[in-house]
Amino acid sequence: MLYGMSAEQRIAEHLAVSERGEVRVGENGMRWRVTTPDSVHSDAADPEMLYAAALASCLHQSVVLEASKEGVPTESSRVRATVTLKLVQEKFTMQAAVAVELPGTDDNTARSIQQRAWQSCPMTRNIDITFEEQPSGA
After folding, report:
1. I want to staple 101 with a disulfide (CB 3.0 to 4.6 A). Which of 13, 22, 78, 127 is the partner?
2. Cβ atoms 99, 114 nearer than 8 A
3. pLDDT for residue 27
4. pLDDT < 70 regions, the chain
5. Phi and psi of 128, rounded to 5°?
């Protein structure tokens, strides 16, 4: 169990709102201009960029956690995530590929850490998504 948590314990919850070409997290939190993947705006992110960043950072935190259990140093560790948006038979699909780097770690140990990190990172498993009722008057 992670950090002595009970069987189910909420450890983080964030509200993100996307409207009018911007996404923000929290009431007064971080904001990003958002655009479509084919846009020429270099100062805006598209959803696939944000997903790649979230996937890479989540998996990297899991790698660090799993490596620390074995005393494997992670100062030079790195996770790269590539997210590709495709149009297949008139439907958008998304594909992700990740690469984990643990310099100075033998292949078997690195592979074991990577597999455990993959299992512990919530963004690499099925994510439960529910549709909430829209508030009246919205």
Report:
1. 78
2. no
3. 76
4. 1-6, 41, 126, 128, 130, 134-138
5. -80, 115
Beta bridge partners, 24, equal 17, 31
What is the reported pTM?
0.81
- Alpha-carbon torsion, ordered 60, 10, 46, 135, to 10 deg: 180
Place of tokens 């992700």: 96
Question: Tokens 């958002």 map to which residue?
Answer: 34
Burial of 80 (0-12, 13-18, 19+ CB in 10 A): middle
Q: So what's the pLDDT on residue 1?
A: 47
- What pLDDT does residue 58 have? 94
